[in-house]
Write a structure and sequence with these properties.
Shape: elongated
Order of helices and strands: HHHHHH
Oligomer: single chain
Radius of gyration: 23 Å
């Protein structure tokens, strides 16, 4: 018997097992980090400051659905969530469950502003404004039924958002 060959194969097996364990641990660590990131993002979205931003924006859009003097704070938030979503740094199911209706509703309510902003800043700077947010909207629309929300549904959503902080349960 060639004990050195057996020992070499045992060493190769041990290294392979070790690499497998390290790979599995790294995947679990990435999954945990992604879940922690999601918790932070959803906490930010539901924070008192963001509740005020959402309520103010929704109330403003209810007054003037074609308003161009809107705060882009929420658009930037959704743009960043969309980038993390595309990079698969956020769990698909959690993002859909937490943000899909909000993304689709806000996109429909704000797309006029996005198109205006792209036009104002022209070809050099404008074409990429909020494209990630738009793509995430398209992704959710496709998952739902392929149709955008009705104007009544968007108005109901905006009414709900405008009342944030006013309703006590």
């Amino acid at each position: 018997m060639d004990y050195s060959a057996i020992a070499a194969w045992a060493a190769v097996g041990a290294v392979a097992c070790t690499l497998l364990v390290v790979w599995l641990q790294n995947n679990k660590a990435k999954e945990l980090a992604c879940l922690q990131l999601f918790v932070q993002i959803s906490a930010q979205y539901d924070s008192a400051d963001m509740q005020k931003v959402r309520a103010s924006l929704a109330a403003h859009l209810l007054e003037d659905r074609k308003a161009l003097d809107v705060s882009d704070c929420l658009l930037v938030f959704f743009e960043n969530v969309a980038i993390l979503h595309r990079r698969k740094l956020l769990d698909e199911e959690l993002v859909r469950n937490t943000f899909s209706i909000d993304v689709v509703s806000y996109w429909q309510a704000l797309q006029h502003y996005v198109y205006h902003t792209r036009e104002v800043y022209g070809e050099e700077y404008g074409p990429d404004f909020y494209t990630e947010f738009e793509e995430m909207n398209d992704h959710f629309i496709k998952e739902m039924n392929g149709k955008p929300l009705s104007d009544d549904a968007v108005n109901d959503f905006l009414l709900s958002e405008a009342n944030r902080g006013k309703l006590r349960v």
